[in-house]
């Protein structure tokens, strides 16, 4: 989605219902005030890096028309700024951070606010320093500002003596700072905020100011429970006229599901600086790399297309996984030997058992899931409805109470052993000692497969090769498909990989159980090299 102009009334640009409501509330547009800010950028600010280093700060068309002009031109009936909040979401390399640096300097030196307090905030001190350092570089490059603004780079602060104003970099670690009297709060890469604490401290810190400004910029993230995603949705709703807020200036450029991520049309749509700070060759190279390596596809989607993804890295593309889907039933596998992988996530969420069968040259997956009924109440509404639906289809067994009933899982495993040949069960010993002891008492051989890099790396890489080469089959179980779409991996310094429950978008227990079972399968029956050689094995 990219914002679009609607119509002009008496020279004032009307983009959405909030602009119309502002007119009705007596707001007006002061072109001279907007032009004053543009003059400040062009007269006093200089770029410090990249292709524009040393050149005056000429605002790009989108920066002027969609941000600076409306932000500083619209007025309340009393003459103060209409917009007290500004939300900008655009892909990387469009110049949003540089713009934020310039806005910070204007609020410090050009806004006329006595004793102004400007805070630039980010998820880490290093990230917050990016905006501060760019502002400081602009000060040093400006003859007019360098003699009036005192820099204290070691503590990431600067002062403007004329109005006794300060500009300070803060990070999420500083969330305990209470009582700031902010006239301007600038959040850089809001998606990187680890929680809501710093936002909550600063969002209302300008209550006593005449015209405070809360301004955030970001690219897309992965956590849809975060403060960034919540604010993103609010801004999008105002931009699309689904909600009305005359105090919020939204500018959200994002790729929609229907957009082709590999087309130049989409690149132009979501990158307002395309052809200026971003060129076709650069985008094409990034796109080609993402298409060739599924592990970087989500990075391309987030940073280049501003699209929220389910994880940092996709690891294996959904297309690869989907191509492994085929039709078979439990009955087709009756009496066959299998390797069982059990993933006991927690007592209060989904638990998984996967039976892994060797059928000819391929493996086949048969998954089973359990979840306590009470756990559904604590999940996000959409996930709760999804799991309820799967339970009604018999794909997840709900157990009564607040925690999963290991007695039910034990009984079900024993029942499965009457149908399939289950000589052993592999599981992570964490949180599983009691059930493991019970299963051994039932006559099962239990193997512990820890989930560290050393123990699980070989099986994780083997799983990758099997999926890429269509040597593993699944029966399109929607629960397992959902878990596959959530999965992210971690890699250590030696290049070993493992599934990451912390980085994954949601539950991955079914995939973890599959890899655990595979760890035992390849140890007992290593795949013959000739099988992969003949099929021209591919790796990601």
What's the short story on this structure?
The protein is an alpha/beta fold. Helices cover 39% and strands 18% of the residues. α4 crosses α5.
Reconstruct the topology from this structure.
Blueprint: E1 7-9, E2 12-14, H1 17-24, E3 28-29, H2 31-44, H3 61-73, E4 74-75, E5 85-89, H4 96-109, E6 117-122, H5 125-141, H6 143-146, E7 149-152, E8 157-160, E9 165-171, E10 184-187, H7 197-203, E11 213-218, H8 227-239, E12 248-252, H9 264-270, H10 280-292, H11 294-305, H12 318-323, E13 338-343, E14 351-359, E15 362-372, H13 381-392, E16 397-399, H14 406-417, E17 424-427, H15 433-441, E18 445-448, H16 453-468, E19 472-473, H17 478-486, E20 489-491, E21 497-499, H18 509-524, H19 529-535
Parallel strand pairs: 5-11, 5-12, 6-9, 6-10, 10-11, 13-17, 15-16, 15-19, 17-18
Antiparallel strand pairs: 1-2, 3-4, 7-8, 8-9, 13-14, 14-15, 20-21
Helix pairs in contact: 2-3, 4-5, 10-11, 16-18
């Amino acid at each position: 989605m990219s914002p679009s102009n609607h119509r002009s009334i008496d020279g004032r640009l009307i983009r959405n219902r909030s602009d119309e409501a502002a007119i009705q509330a007596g707001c007006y547009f002061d072109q001279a005030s907007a032009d004053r800010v543009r003059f400040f950028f062009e007269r006093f600010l200089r770029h410090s890096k990249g292709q524009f280093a040393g050149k005056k700060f000429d605002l790009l068309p989108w920066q002027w028309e969609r941000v600076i002009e409306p932000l500083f031109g619209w007025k309340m009936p009393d003459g103060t700024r209409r917009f007290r909040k500004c939300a900008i979401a655009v892909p990387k390399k469009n110049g949003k951070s540089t713009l934020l640096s310039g806005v910070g300097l204007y609020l410090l030196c050009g806004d006329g606010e006595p004793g102004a307090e400007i805070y630039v905030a980010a998820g880490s001190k290093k990230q917050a320093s990016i905006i501060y350092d760019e502002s400081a570089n602009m000060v040093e490059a400006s003859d007019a500002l360098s003699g009036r603004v005192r820099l204290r780079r070691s503590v990431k602060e600067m002062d403007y003596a004329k109005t006794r104003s300060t500009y300070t970099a803060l990070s999420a670690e500083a969330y305990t700072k209470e009582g700031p009297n902010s006239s301007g709060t600038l959040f850089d890469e809001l998606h990187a905020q680890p929680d809501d604490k710093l936002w909550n401290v600063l969002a209302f810190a300008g209550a006593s100011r005449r015209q405070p400004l809360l301004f955030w910029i970001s690219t897309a993230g992965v956590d849809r429970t975060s403060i960034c995603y919540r604010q993103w949705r609010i801004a999008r709703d105002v931009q699309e006229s689904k909600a009305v807020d005359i105090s919020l200036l939204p500018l959200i450029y994002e790729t929609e599901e229907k957009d082709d991520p590999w087309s130049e049309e989409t690149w132009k749509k979501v990158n307002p600086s395309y052809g200026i700070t971003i060129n076709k060759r650069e985008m094409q190279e990034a796109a080609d790399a993402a298409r060739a390596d599924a592990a970087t596809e989500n990075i391309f989607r987030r940073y280049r297309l501003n699209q929220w993804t389910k994880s940092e890295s996709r690891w294996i593309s959904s297309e690869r996984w989907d191509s492994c889907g085929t039709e078979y039933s439990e009955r087709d596998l009756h009496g066959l030997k299998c390797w069982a992988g059990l993933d006991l996530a927690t007592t209060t969420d989904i638990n998984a058992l996967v039976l892994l069968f060797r059928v000819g040259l391929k493996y086949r997956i048969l998954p089973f899931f359990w979840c306590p009924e009470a756990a559904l109440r604590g999940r996000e509404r959409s996930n709760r409805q999804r799991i309820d639906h799967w339970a009604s289809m018999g794909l997840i067994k709900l157990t009564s109470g607040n925690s999963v009933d290991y007695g039910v899982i034990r009984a079900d495993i024993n029942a499965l052993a009457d149908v399939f040949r289950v000589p052993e069960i592999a599981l992570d010993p964490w949180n599983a000692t009691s059930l493991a002891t019970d299963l051994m008492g039932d006559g099962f051989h239990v193997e512990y497969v820890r989930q560290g890099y050393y123990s699980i790396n070989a099986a994780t890489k083997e799983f990758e090769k099997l999926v890429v080469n269509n040597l593993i089959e699944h029966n399109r179980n929607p629960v397992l498909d959902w878990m596959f779409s959530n999965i992210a991996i971690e890699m250590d310094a030696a290049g070993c990989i493992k599934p990451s429950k912390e980085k994954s978008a949601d539950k991955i227990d079914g995939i973890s159980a599959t890899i655990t079972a595979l760890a035992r399968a390849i140890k007992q029956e290593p795949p013959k090299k000739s099988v992969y050689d003949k099929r021209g094995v591919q790796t990601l």
